[in-house]
């Protein structure tokens, strides 16, 4: 069977991605699912739950409700909660059961908005995809509801002489340790640019509303890709893809942001820029496991810092696959066949691909299928939750201490 796991863990689901993406915007997010299932999200996937309040709920779907189709109960509960809590918006999403029995979540959101007058929307999920799809859909849907050209009253009349304004997209605790948003904000400001919005952590609904006045977007994870593409299509805001790992890669990212931002300010158009494409070296000896943007950026950082080539094994299954290089684009390296980057969320195939490398970099829960390999642990919250929190280190804009173990 494909896409099965008997040894390793699985990634956080799309419903968790929705909750993580919408956590800080002042809205009410409700998963249509059985009572008790909210603990999966709150206790395993959301480190902010213990320090920051947010209106995250479960609908308490019962077997009778599912069989008889009692949508009115869900609608009435949503309306009652909204009248008591006064959220900025109401977001709902489906677990596998509502998805399987065909509950019309869009119609429910429409009915709730008509009764409450509060912006309400459905984020498309089915509980069977990864957090990337859920978070990406959540960011995109939120943006479509709260950004419009007629809301851009604070767009500067002249862009000449002002700092380049940057949107940071795809920032959630499922991919980054808490506090990473501040590190990236400070890094961008130090380099002479200004942060317009940081969507996912350290943010607010006001930042969503002003997304459209930025000059350029920085996509730091696959979760921000859909929003970046939407902003480019709707408002002509170009984007750069890359996560600022190490010491040298952040400098390259800043150069690209300045280049693209300056061009945008003068009305020039730019296609997407992927940082990893421009500085990665390729080899089979080192394999980086994980989400595509993070893994490709880390691989690029390793190339810049050490001169070693790497291979990316994307293990989520629905990330930004444009970051991967298959063996048709890079066939040989120094006379040695290069196997190419792959997306692989099947445990058996992943184990076989791991055999082709000597050094493996990834979440500790991958170690059991990496026997006989040198393994470098980099915990990933979306995969191992809080299991390795005390070992988690923030690699953004810092020296990559593990590089000494590669040689």
Can you walk through the features of this model?
- This protein is of the alpha/beta class and 407 residues long.
- Helix content is 36%, strand content 16%.
- The protein contains 15 helices and 16 strands.
- The strands form 4 sheets. It has a 5-stranded parallel sheet with strand order 6-5-7-8-9, with helices on both faces. Strands 14-11-10-15-16 form a 5-stranded parallel sheet, sandwiched between helices.
- The model has no long low-confidence stretch (mean pLDDT 89).
Average residue pLDDT: 89
Q: What overall form do the CA principal axes indicate?
A: globular
Q: Helix count, per DSSP?
A: 15
Strand order of the largest sheet: 6-5-7-8-9
Low-confidence stretches: none
Rg, rounded, reads 22 Å
**Roughly what fraction of the amino acids lie in strands?**
15-25%
Would you report the number of β strands?
Answer: 16
Q: Quickly give the structural class.
A: alpha/beta
Distance between the termini: 37 Å
């Amino acid at each position: 069977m494909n896409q099965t796991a008997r040894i390793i863990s699985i990634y956080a689901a799309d419903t968790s991605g929705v909750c993580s993406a919408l956590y800080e915007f002042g809205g009410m997010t409700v998963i249509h699912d059985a009572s008790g299932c909210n603990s999966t999200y709150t206790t395993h996937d959301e480190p902010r739950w213990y320090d920051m309040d947010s209106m995250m709920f479960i609908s308490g779907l019962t077997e009778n409700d599912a069989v008889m189709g009692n949508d009115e109960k869900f609608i009435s509960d949503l309306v009652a909660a909204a009248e008591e809590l006064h959220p900025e918006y109401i977001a709902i999403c489906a677990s596998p059961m509502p998805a399987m029995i065909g509950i019309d979540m869009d119609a429910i959101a429409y009915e709730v908005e008509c009764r409450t007058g509060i912006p309400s929307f459905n984020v498309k999920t089915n509980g069977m995809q990864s957090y990337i799809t859920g978070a990406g859909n959540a960011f995109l849907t939120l943006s479509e509801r709260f950004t419009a050209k007629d809301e851009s009253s604070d767009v500067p009349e002249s862009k000449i002489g002002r700092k380049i304004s940057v949107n940071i997209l795809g920032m959630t605790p499922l991919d980054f340790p808490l506090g990473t948003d501040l590190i990236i904000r400070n890094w961008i400001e130090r380099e002479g640019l200004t942060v317009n919005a940081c969507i996912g952590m350290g943010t607010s609904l006001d930042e969503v509303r002003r997304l459209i006045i930025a000059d350029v977007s920085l996509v730091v994870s696959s979760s921000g890709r859909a929003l970046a593409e939407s902003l480019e299509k709707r408002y002509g805001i170009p984007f750069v893809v890359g996560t600022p790992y190490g010491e040298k890669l952040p400098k390259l990212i800043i150069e690209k942001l300045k280049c693209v931002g300056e061009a945008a300010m003068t009305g020039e158009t730019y296609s997407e820029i992927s940082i990893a494409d421009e500085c990665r070296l390729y080899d089979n000896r080192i394999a980086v496991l994980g989400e595509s943007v993070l893994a490709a950026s880390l691989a690029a950082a390793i190339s810049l810092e050490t001169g070693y080539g790497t291979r990316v094994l994307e293990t989520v299954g629905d990330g930004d696959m444009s970051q991967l290089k298959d063996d048709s684009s890079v066939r040989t390296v120094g006379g040695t066949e290069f196997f190419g980057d792959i997306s692989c969320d099947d445990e058996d195939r992943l184990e076989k691909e791991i055999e082709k490398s000597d050094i493996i970099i990834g979440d500790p829960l991958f170690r059991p299928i990496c026997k006989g390999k040198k393994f470098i642990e980099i915990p990933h919250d979306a995969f191992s939750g809080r299991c390795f929190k005390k070992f988690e280190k923030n690699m953004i804009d810092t020296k990559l201490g593990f590089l000494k173990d590669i040689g």
